[in-house]
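The material for today's practical consists of a large collection of protein records. An example says more than a description, so a record of this kind follows:
***
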Amino acid sequence: MKNNRQIYPGVGISSILMIFVILCLTAFGILSFSTARSDWQLTQKNVQSIQSYYDADAKAQEVLAQTDLELARLLRENPSFSNRQLASHLNGQLIMDTQLSIPKGSSGTELIFSVPVGSMQKIQVKLELVSESQRYRILSYHLSPSEEWSGENQPLDVWDGVS
């Protein structure tokens, strides 16, 4: 008798290939989802950071406006006040929960204040009182860290040149 065996080449290979394609597509789908989720979380942190910066900026501008009103009031009540006397009157005063102070080593006609931006940064503003109609000039208005980095929490591993 004759053995009539027919072999169908490619049925097993095509099944293995189809399983491999499905596994690859599933893996790529999971990686795409993971990347999209990480990007979304980073975007949310960025939005929160920008929102807190602009909130702090608006508060700093309100403090400047209130300081200007206070300077105008002081000058209206005592037109003979010098810039140094005006600064000493405003030193330590709270305007919108923000303390004005005279910086150390200044001429006595400058005031500084800071507004927190989140937990890590602050907007720091430095004013100089002037005798002109504008009453003050902004010397600096910048974003700075809330505290100095000491490196205690995150030490840097610096290569010293020796293996």
Remarks:
- The longest helix spans residues 11-77.
